[in-house]
Amino acid sequence: MFWGRGAARPEPWEVGDVLWAVIEPLLPKCERRA
What we know:
IS5 family transposase
């Protein structure tokens, strides 16, 4: 699940969409913005 920033390069800490659903709301808005 990429929201505009990690699509081109693979992240070493790839996590599942379900896990992101839990983590994403906890991140600062500057981290989640597309």
